[in-house]
Amino acid sequence: MKYAVYGVVLAAMLAGCAQQPGKDAAIEDRSAGGAGGAQSTVQTQGLAGSDASGTALGAGNLVAPPKNAPGALGQRVIYFDYDSSAIRNEYRAVLEAHAGFVKANAKAKVNLEGHADERGSPDYNIALGQRRADSVRKAMQLLGAPEERMESVSFGEEKPAVPGHDEAAWSKNRRVEIRYDGE
After folding, report:
1. Contacting residues for 12 by C-beta, under 8 A, at least 6 apart
2. Phi/psi zone of residue 41: left (φ > 0), alpha (ψ -120 to 50 degrees), beta?
3. What is the mean pLDDT of the chain?
4. Domains and CATH numbers, the chain
5. SS3 sequence, the chain?
6. Which residues contact 167 (CB under 8 A, 6 or more apart)?
7. Are residues 160 and 115 in contact, defined by beta-carbon separation less than 8 angstroms?
8. CB–CB of 115/174 below 8 Å?
9. Separation of alpha carbons 43 and 10, rounded Å
10. pTM over 0.85, yes/no
């Protein structure tokens, strides 16, 4: 079931991508094969590549991009809709930039911290935060970031970005924060 969600998330994320000639590739996720036999295939047709702006900012041995990095690489938070772990298309450039950076810098290790708003039980929110972090991790992996240099963790509702009990606060608390080791 978990991998089926990944497939749906990634298919939705990639569906809005514009096509570019010469960038066609198919990525087959075989990780679910051992746990029930479910597999998903994601077409990456049209992906611009994982090195859009992440590679441009220091390919080599950086552990993290500067926090004030220009463009998508400077953005470290991905927000989610209520009760969802689907990544919205508006974050595609952010994922490409960070995946490209991790891929291009051998010392870069990234922690993807999933969060949920206060609605739902603590157990549910931990699971939802983990699904969100895993969605970002899987998307970055498909964009070229090495899996072994990414870790996903959930804080559930324990670390809200914004205090409050309304939609304005909740919308800022449904997120994944991209943090690099060594920062």
Report:
1. 86, 87
2. beta
3. 79
4. 72-157+171-180 (3.30.1330.60)
5. CHHHHHHHHHHHHHHCCCCCCCCCCEEEECCCCCCCCCCEEEECCCCCCCCCCCCCCCCECCCCCCCCCCHHHHCCEEECCCCCCCCCHHHHHHHHHHHHHHHHECCCCEEEEEECCCCCCHHHHHHHHHHHHHHHHHHHHHCCCCHHHEEEEEEECCCCCCCCCCHHHHHHHCEEEEEECCC
6. none
7. yes
8. yes
9. 9
10. no
Q: What are phi and psi of 129, to 5 degrees?
A: -60, -40
Q: Which of 98, 80, 82 is nearest to 90 (CA)?
A: 80
pLDDT per residue as tens digits for the range 72-97: 999 999 999 999 999 999 999 999 99
Cα(94)–Cα(92) distance, integer angstroms = 5
